[in-house]
Design a protein that fits this description.
Elements (H helix, E strand, L loop, with lengths): L1 H21 L7 E5 L6 H8 L12 H9 L4 E9 L3 E8 L4 E5 L2 E5 L5 E5 L9 E2 L8 H12 L2 H6 E8 L2 E6 L4 E5 L4 H10 L7 E3 L7 E2 L1
Parallel strand pairs: 1-3, 7-8, 10-11
Antiparallel strand pairs: 2-3, 4-5, 5-6, 8-9, 9-10, 11-12
Helix pairs in contact: 2-3
């Protein structure tokens, strides 16, 4: 009797394992995508590459995440099994922090400098960064984002564009034609405080490249 019981248990376990891993009875019947605005569901599904009917237990979730994460607008992605027959893909898209003009179009970049979307018109509410080749490995892009992150609310409100012509040649173009010479991106917090305090002063050109010795003219 004990051997018969053990044999029955082993048989049940083997059958259950075969059903789960070796058949399509608990296979993929649906792939759900959430969290997208820039991307379409079709784009995510194509990147995910989940085969319909594949045993749900055998689906490579890490592989799905890596493939979907390779899409430029994706910041993070989580893929989960949703028994008995679905895969849930939750996408967190990148958040733009600046826009870079490229010819007649505009490229959105996130806080890491990743250029992830090109649009035909400038979106409202985003600062303009003039850099030649936006990207996470581009020194000019990193400098522009460092400066933008340090700006006070007053400077952000007055800002027309941050222009990076070189490592030590950064300036802010303000509304009304005023200019703030920033120098390099070092001491940006201090430069922001000094420049903000001088906004009410007369003069079209404020030089805070050396924040301890400021010139206005």
């Amino acid at each position: 009797m004990p051997w018969a019981t053990v044999g029955a248990v082993v048989l049940v376990v083997a059958l259950a394992t075969w059903v789960v891993y070796g058949t399509g009875l608990l296979g993929v019947r649906q792939v759900r995508v959430s969290g997208i605005e820039v991307l379409s569901a079709d784009e995510v599904l194509a990147a995910a590459g989940v085969r319909d009917g594949m045993a749900l237990a055998r689906v490579d979730l890490d592989g799905i995440e890596k493939r979907v994460a390779a899409l430029a607008p994706v910041d993070r992605v989580i893929a989960d099994r949703d028994w008995p027959g679905a895969i849930a893909i939750r996408v967190v898209e990148r958040t733009p922090v600046a826009v870079v003009p490229q010819g007649k179009k505009y490229v959105l970049v996130d806080k890491h400098g990743v250029a992830f979307q090109t649009v035909g018109s400038r979106p409202g509410g985003l600062p303009l960064a003039r850099v030649p080749k936006p990207g996470p490995d581009d020194a000019a892009t990193r400098s522009a984002l460092e400066v933008l992150a340090a700006l006070s609310p007053q400077l952000t409100k007055e800002l027309s564009a941050v222009v990076v012509k070189g490592p030590a040649s950064i300036h802010l173009e303000l509304r009304g034609g005023r200019l703030i010479v920033w120098g390099d991106s070092s001491e940006s917090g201090e430069k922001s405080e000094v420049a903000t305090a001088l906004l009410k002063q007369d003069g079209d050109r404020i030089d805070v490249s050396a924040p301890e010795v400021v010139t206005i003219r």
